[in-house]
Amino acid sequence: MFYNLFSFFVWLFLTPFILVFSFKKKYKKSLPARFFLYKNPPLKKADVHFHACSFGEISALEILALKFESFSFTTTTATGFEKAKSLNENTRFLPFECFIPFWLTKSKVLVVFEAELWLNLVKTAKKNGSYVILLNARISDRSYKRYEKFKFYYKEIFKYIDLVLAQSQLDKTRLLNLGAKNIEVVGNIKSANFKPASKDYPKFSEFLVTIASTHDGEEELILNNITPNKNQKFIIAPRHPERFCKVAKICEDFAKKFNLKFEKFSQNLGFKSNIILLDTMNEVINFYKISDVVVLGGSFIDGIGGHNPIEIAQFNKPLINGYFYHNQKALFELVDGVNFSDLSNLNELLSSNLSKTMIKNKADLKSIENLIKIKIKEQNGC
């Protein structure tokens, strides 16, 4: 009761700020839906309710979720919502805490992905009779100190989680310290989440460098350390679609500087240019498949923490990564052959015979699928 009252007053305090941010394109759908339930009715009933934060997490759940005939998604970001909606119409934004107790529809199993630990989500699910699983549970080095400060809160959350499937033994130790029970180490499902390429693009005659998942400031940083030649082709794929216009200008200026051609993927010009902006979602994996080397963003500036190397390593492609990958340490432990760089030697690396990446310690996605199906049957009384 106290927590619900507290969350309500937090909502009241945040309301003016939320109204202002709701006018921004990035939050135009998510904030009104989450904080005012605008066009965000309760989910339709489903056997399994998957909750994950954003595009990358929903993508990681895709193969598993599609194994079930009856499932639903909740998420908290616009990109996550669009990805989930493409998989299942039974998708909603997860409301703010004070709304969840009267909004959440009962499911037989609730699967919460990674660190999306909302007290009212798991508490209400248990009250509704759901079996609650925390999947792919991890606690990064940076987050652990913050978690320990609020140990009382997480200890309360873990009262309502029936099973924790952790990524590593280190995560299990940290989760136990925070009050989690019934923990199994199953590895990281992203290591087994081999999403195949959706298209087969022909291999380019030029040496293809894909610069992927870049954030604000990284495109300039990476490109400023490259002296291209006409035997190279570059695909630049920003992480967030709202940055496509800005990155287009950066790429265009880079091309002009070296007298190279530039084009956008959306222009459908036939990949004839040396510099190509991948200004669309869900395509970068198709270019990983035919790349000669991938430069993975989110790791060359502090504050982001890196991105998933598994998507590249499934194709055994050479990978250049920065040193700021603290949020993805568990994933990088699953990949051999990564080339770490501060970009000062980027030209040298791009002209070297780099080692290929390889995935190790793959999680058994089938066993996780079977476990969830068993819990569904138990909820049916079978």
UniProtKB/TrEMBL annotation:
Pathway participation: Bacterial outer membrane biogenesis; LPS core biosynthesis
Site (Transition state stabilizer): 114, 190
Compartment annotation: Cell membrane
Primary subcellular site in the record, as a coarse category: membrane
GO biological process: lipid A biosynthetic process; lipopolysaccharide core region biosynthetic process
GO cellular component, one term: plasma membrane
E.C. numbers: 2.4.99.12
Domain 3-deoxy-D-manno-octulosonic-acid transferase N-terminal, residue spans: 30-191
Catalytic activity: lipid IVA (E. coli) + CMP-3-deoxy-beta-D-manno-octulosonate = alpha-Kdo-(2->6)-lipid IVA (E. coli) + CMP + H(+)
Entry's transmembrane regions: 6-23
One of the record's GO molecular function terms: Kdo transferase activity
Keyword Membrane: yes
InterPro entries assigned: Glycos_transf_N, Glycos_transf_N_sf, Kdotransferase
Stretches of the chain forming a coiled coil according to its record: none
Keywords for the protein's UniProt record, in alphabetical order: Cell membrane, Lipopolysaccharide biosynthesis, Membrane, Transferase, Transmembrane, Transmembrane helix
Keyword Membrane found: yes
Catalytic site positions: 57
Free-text function comment from the UniProt entry: Involved in lipopolysaccharide (LPS) biosynthesis. Catalyzes the transfer of 3-deoxy-D-manno-octulosonate (Kdo) residue(s) from CMP-Kdo to lipid IV(A), the tetraacyldisaccharide-1,4'-bisphosphate precursor of lipid A.
Family assignment from sequence similarity: Belongs to the glycosyltransferase group 1 family.
Protein name (Swiss-Prot/TrEMBL): 3-deoxy-D-manno-octulosonic acid transferase
Species, as recorded: Campylobacter ureolyticus ACS-301-V-Sch3b
